[in-house]
Amino acid sequence: MLRIGVAPCSPFSVTDTLLKEAAALARDKGVRLHTHLAETMDEDAFCRERFGCGPVDYMDSLGWLGSDVWYGHGIHLDDAAIASMAATGTGVAHCPTSNARLGAGIARVRDLRDAGVPVGLGVDGSASNERSDLAADVKQALLVARGRGGPEAMTVREALWLGTRGGAQVLGRKDLGSLEPGKCADFAVWNLDGLQFGGADDPVAALVLSGPHRAERVYVGGEAAVLNGQLARADEREIAAAHRVQAARFLD
């Protein structure tokens, strides 16, 4: 259940030599490459001023395009960059909550999908998404897509696809993302008896649009990780108490 990847934080916090060597290392070991890219307009301006090209062209020059590569964010991409990523199978982890919280922008998910770029969902980190709830980002992905492109820009089922099969595609995992014979038995179960689901004729739309909801049960590899809405193998109150102690250290 553990996968190793080579993942410098961003191409503008490390040298081009490190990026080239990271790509060579990943391909030598047969693992995937990941970094954050095209998250802010400042990043785009810096890249063009420093290297004379956009972020995707810069990464291409370092060997960082391919079906074994995925970028976090991918907000500020022009048509040429999207075409290059589609042609090489380079993926994007769309992080709508983080992007909206930080005011970084709204990714062109409809254009990315239509071009054939693999797109999944991410939550980024706790510094820009305190909840880190992937189900919440399914809803957020739907809302920001429609906010950018209108009511036809994304359906509830496509948003759910991004959080399941889309993520598996971006990670190159053919054993994840759907419930089928031979795949990992990873799935979540929600109780639809609550008031928020009352009168809904489409349970998928109700689940996405009225979310986020705490899962009633979660199974990972067929084994229970959450039962009755609580962690099955740990005490959440103990974890929260330990976390508060550690968090306080940063405030002293």
Show the helix and strand layout.
Layout: E1 5-6, H1 16-29, E2 32-37, H2 41-51, H3 55-61, E3 69-73, H4 79-88, E4 91-94, H5 96-102, H6 109-115, E5 119-121, H7 134-149, H8 156-170, E6 187-189, H9 203-209, E7 217-220, E8 223-227, E9 230-231, H10 236-249
Parallel strand pairs: 1-2, 2-3, 3-4, 4-5
Antiparallel strand pairs: 6-7, 7-8, 8-9
Q: Please, could you describe this protein's structure?
A:
With 252 residues, the chain is of the alpha/beta class. 43% of the residues lie in helices and 13% in strands. The protein is built from ten helices and nine strands. The longest helix is centred in the middle third of the chain and has 16 residues.
In short:
With 252 residues, the chain is α/β, with parallel strands linked by helices. The chain has helices at 16-29, 41-51, 55-61, 79-88, 96-102, 109-115, 134-149, 156-170, 203-209, 236-249, and strands at 5-6, 32-37, 69-73, 91-94, 119-121, 187-189, 217-220, 223-227, 230-231.
Please give the largest β-sheet. 5 strands, parallel
What would you report as the Rg, rounded to the nearest angstrom?
19 Å
Low-pLDDT segments = none
Strand-residue proportion: 5-15%
* Total domains: 2
State the share of residues found in helices, binned by percent: 40-55%
